[in-house]
Amino acid sequence: MQDALFYLFAFLTLVFGFLVVANPFSRNPVTSAMFLVLAIISLAGLFVLLHAFFLAAVQVLVYAGAVIVLFLFVIMLLDLKAEEQRKLKAAGVAGGVLAAGALLAIFLASLWAASRDPAAAGGADAPVLEGGTRALAKLLFTQYLLPFELVSVLLLVGMVGVVLLSKKDLK
């Protein structure tokens, strides 16, 4: 049953992720944001299957909650009527295909390396992963305190910037 759920959640994550980028139903960016919510929720299902319940909850609360609301606020704030009429440029499409090909090559190289050395890919000698929050909090607030604080300041600057950009000129 766990294997079937893994394949189901992985398939849904890939399908919804594809629909975020290449949405055949609508050119409205709000529809893509809703597909992003579905991709995030199905990714949280994968975290639950890994017994990382805290990460699944954080995934849904932080990303599907706060970040998507911020994305929708920015989408609604911007005037996207002119963007919808923009044509695709050959250089942009070629760059995207090149980047996707490079990511695919890296992915296939890592799969090939993992098949040659099973211990590095989580074999018998790999540590057992647990979903506890105490070890995560200790690691986050000791070893990774500076990056954590830098990300929080960056998010604060982003929120202040959105507030300043959304203000109307009162002249």
In terms of topology, how is this protein built?
Layout (H helix, E strand, L loop, with lengths): L1 H20 L7 H21 L3 H25 L3 H4 L5 H27 L16 H10 L2 H22 L5
Helix pairs in contact: 1-2, 2-3
Quick tags:
mainly alpha, 171 residues
Largest sheet data: none
Low confidence ranges: none
Class per helix and strand makeup: mainly alpha
The proportion of strand residues reads under 5%
Return the domain count. 2
At the fourth CATH level, what is the homologous superfamily of the largest domain? Answer: NADH-ubiquinone/plastoquinone oxidoreductase chain 6, subunit NuoJ
Q: What is the class of the largest domain in the CATH system?
A: Mainly Alpha
* Annotated CATH architecture of the largest domain: Up-down Bundle
On the 0-100 scale, what is the average pLDDT? 80
Q: What quaternary form is this?
A: single chain
Shape: globular
Rg result: 20 Å
By CATH, the topology of the largest domain is Four Helix Bundle (Hemerythrin (Met), subunit A)
Question: What is the H/E order?
Answer: HHHHHHH
